Amino acid sequence: MGSPGVRLRPAPLGRLSPTDDRLSAAHADRLSPTGGAVSLSPPATADAARERHGLDPPASRYHRRVPQDRPVRYLSEDEDSGRWLPFAFRPGDIVISTRSKSGTTWMQMICCLLVLQTAELPQPLGRLSPWLDWTGTLADELYARLSAQDHRRVIKTHTPLLGIVLDDRATYIVVARHPLDMAVSLYHQGTNIDRHRLRQLTGQPDPVRPPTPRLPLHEWLLSWIDWEGSPSENLDSLPGVLRHATDAWARRRQPNIVLAHYDDLSADLEGQMRRLAALLGITVPDSTWPELVRAAGFDDMRAKAAHTAPDPADILKDRLAFFRRGSSGAAREVLSPDEWDHYRARVADAAPPDVLAWLHHDEPPASSPEEGPDPEAAS
């Protein structure tokens, strides 16, 4: 679901005391002396699948490798990545790590469909595939719910891979989306969250004064592009999106890291689902594929919004509105060619070229857009 505008404060992993969230953002890039990730060992079948699907592009001298052995802790009013430390992994676990509004719910649905091989999920998606970091649900309740599942588990997080425990028994899927399309979707999602209900669940007081009126979308998007804070202060900012993507891209050769792109899912949903099934070691009968692909489509997920929207605690004002549009390219409708070029100039020095090429999916120049609506599934 995500929490638009909420800032995350990094803190050392290891202590889970209530005072940790007051630590300064200066700790953003400091690794914990007590955290620890498990070394990775590739199964031969996974290597074969990755080669078959062309997952490993050539290395680039621009890659900035992010240390993985000690996760950073991220804290906000409603998220705590420290919950990953005591979590008991099992063989076959699937962890989906995305920025907000970048295909999280869509990928959760795809993975649950592949694991269970039925379009009729036994529980609402938000309960079947919970958000581990979200403090609106007690940690022990989440651990118990996941422990009781007798199938491969699908777990959601909006924390970058550098902030969660990496375990060689699990597969980590990172979905990228064009940052500007993600931002437009995030803006609209912000109006659909019941902030009072969210504060109730996370133990936050109501504001003393009424909130400042929101900027119109165009002004807001320009300010989002120009925001210059630390990525760790706001993971859904442009610097935060680039940090998340750069970290994932640097790990793409690791055998249990899988990268996906929102536009690839839009363009060829069945092909991407078959690719993911191969990488996850899941065999699906030919007769079952049409049912699963249909259930993962935008129209079907929107029609079943009461069960597919990520809203296990009634935070959304309108679950149907979560599945808002059904097409990509919304940012191009908001920005002028000059503003688009300004965005491209802004990100050029903020991430390696190959990371930007992955995020932007080799988009045409803003001065001569070759637009065509791609079917969009759940953000």
From the structure above, extract its key features:
disordered N terminus, 379 residues, alpha/beta, 16 helices, two-stranded antiparallel sheet, Rossmann fold, four-stranded parallel beta sheet, disordered C terminus
> How would you classify the helix and strand content by structural class?
alpha/beta
State the CATH superfamily name: P-loop containing nucleotide triphosphate hydrolases
User: What string, H for helix and E for strand, traces the elements in order?
Assistant: EHEEHHHEEHHHHEHHHHHHHH
Note the gap between the termini: 8 Å
Mean pLDDT: 78
Q: Tell me the overall shape.
A: globular
Radius of gyration: 20 Å
Count of helices? 16
Strand order of the largest sheet: 4-3-5-6
CATH topology group: Rossmann fold
Can you lay out the helices and strands and say which pair or pack?
Elements: E1 9-12, H1 44-52, E2 72-75, E3 94-98, H2 104-116, H3 125-128, H4 139-148, E4 154-157, E5 171-176, H5 179-190, H6 195-202, H7 217-226, H8 238-250, E6 257-261, H9 262-267, H10 269-280, H11 289-295, H12 298-303, H13 305-308, H14 319-322, H15 337-348, H16 353-360
Helix pairs in contact: 1-10, 5-7
Characterization of the model:
This protein has a single domain (9-360), classed as Rossmann fold. It has helices spanning 44-52, 104-116, 125-128, 139-148, 179-190, 195-202, 217-226, 238-250, 262-267, 269-280, 289-295, 298-303, 305-308, 319-322, 337-348, 353-360; strands at residues 9-12, 72-75, 94-98, 154-157, 171-176, 257-261. It contains 16 helices and six strands. A four-stranded parallel beta sheet has the order 4-3-5-6, with helices on both faces. Strands 1-2 form a two-stranded antiparallel sheet. It is an alpha/beta fold. The radius of gyration is 20 Å and the shape is globular.
